[in-house]
Design goal:
CATH class: Alpha Beta
Shape: globular
Strand content: 25-35%
Number of strands: 14
Strand order of the largest sheet: 6-5-4-3-2-1-14
Order of helices and strands: EEEHEHHEHHEEEEEHEHHHEHEE
Distance between the termini: 11 Å
Number of domains: 1
Oligomer: single chain
Radius of gyration: 18 Å
């Protein structure tokens, strides 16, 4: 079984009820944080997960709303671990530069803490792996593979497929439908997909906000992707505009037009247990 928790279901629009985009995936003894939007560690703390517990940080792309709290993850892990434990960050090309820039911004803080604490003698230890395709993880029964997605002009962007004990979960990140995402999600037990309500965004008068239609999947498009890939469960997140209480059935109905499997959506901390379909 793989456990998926939607830590943050928000978007660039600040929402008092929703943290920024982030998903926690627990597989066996391993815990993967996928993206790190605003408030991610506060949400993780609510389910008993701290920065020190993260096996690896997986970044789908480098849009600001998906990496807002990268500095918090780096710093909090550094000061709450008492043996040298490098943070592994797996992301698309450009990730190393973003991590280096974040460390540069933290330079004063790092120097203060090293100067104050006798047992902190070195800066945060971070290992970055930049990837666009292929298998990127294979430890203790967990396999993670990566494929390109389409979020242009943001590129490259990637999705992750996590497999454990016969179960599989794909995290699409921000993407419009594309063949590489279809292939990555093929036969998966669950697909976590960011979505927008095209019908509502089209009504917004500002062109800048309507521009998001160009490079995000609508609910219907995400459902089409799930149907083509024959996934078991479609998990919706990153709601634009924000999902408000009482609207859940409206969003689900849009997905139901194309996808006839289970559809999951909800507030931050919504949890989904993903099991192999052949043992349900």
């Amino acid at each position: 079984m793989i456990e998926v928790t939607l830590l943050g279901t928000g978007s660039p629009m600040v929402d008092p009820s929703r943290a920024g985009p982030s998903t926690l995936v627990r597989a066996g003894d391993q815990t993967f944080l996928v993206d790190c939007g605003r408030g991610v560690l506060m949400r993780a703390a609510a389910i008993g997960v701290g920065a020190a517990n993260i096996t690896a940080l997986l970044l789908t792309h480098l849009h600001s709303d998906h990496i807002t709290d990268l500095s918090d993850v780096i710093t909090t892990r550094w000061v709450t671990t008492f043996t040298r434990t490098p943070l592994l960050v797996i992301g698309p090309p450009g990730t190393a530069a973003v991590v280096d820039a974040t460390l540069a911004a933290l330079a004063y803080d790092i120097s203060y803490r090293i100067g104050h604490h006798a047992d902190i003698t070195e800066p945060p230890s971070i290992e970055v792996e930049e990837v666009t395709d292929g298998v990127v993880w294979g430890r203790d029964g967990v396999r993670i593979s990566v494929a390109p997605t389409d979020h242009r002009p943001v590129e490259p962007t990637i999705g992750f497929r996590i497999e454990f004990d016969g179960a599989s979960v794909v995290l699409a990140g921000d993407s419009v439908p594309c063949a590489s995402l279809d292939a990555l999600a093929d036969g998966a037990d669950a697909l976590v997909h960011t979505v927008i309500r095209k019908d509502l965004v089209e009504l917004v008068p500002q062109q800048r906000l309507r521009d998001i239609l160009d490079y995000h999947s609508s609910v219907e498009q995400a459902a089409d992707t799930a149907a083509r890939a024959d996934v078991g469960t479609l998990i919706l997140t990153h709601y634009v505009p924000p999902l408000t209480p009482g609207q859940e059935d409206d969003w689900r109905a849009l997905a139901d037009k194309a996808f006839h499997g289970r559809v999951e959506l909800g507030d931050d901390l919504h949890r989904v247990e993903v099991t192999p379909r052949n043992v349900r």
